[in-house]
Specification:
alpha/beta; TIM Barrel; three-stranded parallel beta sheet; 11 helices; Metal_Hydrolase; hydrolase; Amidohydrolase family protein
């Protein structure tokens, strides 16, 4: 069994958001079933979604159960208003908004809370990942609420400040974690936290020498190299690493993404059996299997 710890099933080649919103339930079920059957055909039998704004992952969870696939979803992600991430869920301004949206998530039986804490890697400015969107108190409140309800927390975070804040408040997994330092790696190891470093989005752009990013490939390569070195370092000091492809992201396919991820881990020096062990053992912890 293979586990992909970070996908977005709503982002695929079968439908766009506008088409989804105007389509029949039969169309939705057919599209998601086709995707999930491909996962199953390739022995990818456990998936953790990072959320979407159209409840696709919520429906996918129902279908996955019938297909014999373990599927975890946050329903939708939570981001700060006027910051990165609104396409993955819902934007909030503060704690009151969170309380309202968390009730919606509970009604839909979220498997984990997804918080989008920072931006993404800026391909035009090395080191820039946007500001930390939530205050420490806001982040702490959201994480505490999830823990009291009994669900884990996955946090999209890049850069030292965002990742460090996420570690301090006790989230369960760090998603992406680009451009961090040894300090954060040691903190993750100490807290026995799972890191899902998602090499495929940048790796696939570099492999394809994507002409859309022709002027940015140098920075992308530098960020990728920093990430791979951090992964090697993390393994040396005992950080739990799980594999997540970010399937649905630009240039990362559903199903194929996790095989890309496995190959990138092999390319940086890990034996395939070691990679699969990370994938299964740490992936199982991330999904609370």
């Amino acid at each position: 069994m293979i586990i992909d710890c970070h996908i977005h099933i709503a982002h695929n080649t079968l439908f766009k958001k506008k088409e989804w919103n105007s389509s029949t339930i039969d169309f939705k079920i057919d599209c998601l079933t086709r995707i999930l059957k491909e996962y199953k055909k390739n022995n990818i039998l456990a998936l953790r979604d990072g959320g979407d704004g159209i409840f696709a992952s919520c429906l996918a969870r129902e279908i996955a159960t019938k297909e014999g696939i373990i599927y975890r979803t946050p329903i939708f992600g939570i981001c700060k208003k006027d910051h990165y991430g609104s396409f993955l869920g819902r934007s909030i301004s503060g704690i009151d908004d969170f309380k309202r949206e968390f009730e919606v998530l509970k009604e839909n039986k979220l498997d984990h809370l997804k918080i989008i804490l920072t931006g993404i890697v800026n391909f035009n400015k090395l080191g820039d990942v946007g500001e930390v969107a939530f205050t420490y108190d806001e982040l702490e409140y959201m994480v505490k609420s999830a823990k009291e309800y009994g669900v884990p927390v996955m946090v999209h975070a890049n850069g030292s400040k965002g990742v460090s804040d996420a570690i301090k408040v006790g989230v369960d997994t760090i998603e992406h974690g680009f451009l961090i330092s040894d300090k954060e790696l040691y903190e993750m190891a100490e807290k026995k936290m799972v890191w899902v470093p998602t090499l495929s989005p940048l790796g696939n752009i570099l492999r394809a020498k994507d002409p859309n990013f022709r002027d940015q490939l140098d920075i992308i390569r530098k960020v990728y190299d920093i990430q791979t070195e951090n992964i090697r370092r993390a393994c040396e000091i005992g950080v739990k690493i799980a594999l997540g492809s970010d399937a649905g992201a630009y240039c990362v396919g559903q199903v194929s993404g996790i095989f890309d991820e496995i190959k990138y881990f092999e390319n940086i020096g890990f034996r395939k059996d070691t990679v699969l062990k990370m994938c299964i053992e740490n992936g199982s912890e991330a999904l609370k299997i």
